[in-house]
Amino acid sequence: MSKRHERISGRRSAVQVLYTSEIQGRPASELLDEGCCLSEDGPLPEYAVTLARGVEERCADIDACLEATSENWAVARMPIVDRSILRLAAYEMIYVADVPVSVAINEAVELAKEFGGEDESPRFVNGVLGRIAKSLEAGELAVEGAVAKEAAADAPRPGAVAAAVDALAAQLAAEDAAAAEGAAEPEAADAEAGE
Fold first, then answer.
1. For residues 24 and 192, what is the distance between their CA atoms, to the nearest angstrom?
2. pTM for the whole thing?
3. Choice between 141 and 126, residue whose per-residue pLDDT is larger
4. How far is it, in rounded angstroms, from Cα 74 to Cα 76?
5. What per-residue confidence (pLDDT) applies to 24?
6. pLDDT at position 137, please?
7. Strand partners of residue 38
8. How far is the C-alpha of 83 from the C-alpha of 19, rounded, in Å?
9. All residues at 6 or more sequence positions from 27 whose CB lies less than 8 Å from its CB, including other chains
10. Residue 144 has what DSSP assignment?
11. CA-CA distances (angstroms) from residue 65 to 15, 87, 154?
12. Cβ(48)–Cβ(91) under 8 Å?
């Protein structure tokens, strides 16, 4: 399995661990230590364990970032799935040096599409993480233990993260419009048939 697929699988599993931790009111590390969490293929990928433990360790700092950037939403009031996805992505954005910010955001939006309980989950996740990314990029968000992202050749240039977040928001809006148009077509056909 490629590193990319291992990470995608790891993120999926980590979100499930974080969600289970919240539902059961038990620390993620406790669930991991007891072996309560397995992936579809058996033991959790190592990256999932790293993410779940990292989120748990840095949860107070992550939640402070989420509180500062989620407009009109207290972290405690967010849906558990969204909160778990946001914590995981914020952890990657702030503390994992070899994950570009734009990748963390894109992967979180995909997780929100898959696991989010509401149609608004992907847009909400993208918005909150986009604000965190812009704050990080502008140097406005100082978090203890944060890693500096390498300025590699393939890393986003200043302003590129904001452009990527905006492009993702436009894509989500287009998907919503296409879904709404698809839902309206059967209604129009039904109305014509009834005439």
1. 51
2. 0.75
3. 126
4. 5
5. 94
6. 85
7. 43
8. 9
9. 21, 56
10. T
11. 18, 9, 26
12. no
User: 88: helix, coil or strand?
Assistant: helix
> Do 14 and 88 contact (CB within 8 A), yes or no?
yes
Average the pLDDT over 36-61 and give the result: 86
Q: How far is CA 144 from CA 18, 46, 106, in A?
A: 22, 24, 24
CB atoms within 10 A of CB 154: 6
Bridge partners for 42 per DSSP: 39
Q: Please tell me the distance from the alpha carbon of residue 147 to that of residue 167, in angstroms, as a whole number.
A: 26
Q: Which of 156, 34, 28, 143 is nearest to 84 (CA)?
A: 28
- In 3-state terms, what secondary structure has residue 70? coil
**Which bin fits 72, alpha (ψ -120 to 50), beta or left (φ > 0)?**
left
- Beta 42-43 vs 38-39: how paired, if at all? antiparallel
Binning pLDDT at 50, 70 and 90, where does residue 23 land? very high
Residue 90 identity: A
Q: Is 35 left (phi over 0), alpha (psi -120 to 50) or beta?
A: left
* Residue 87, both tokens: 């914590």
The tokens describing 179, both together, are: 């879904």
Averaged confidence pLDDT in the chain: 80
Report the alpha-carbon distance of residue 34 to residue 12 in Å, rounded: 19
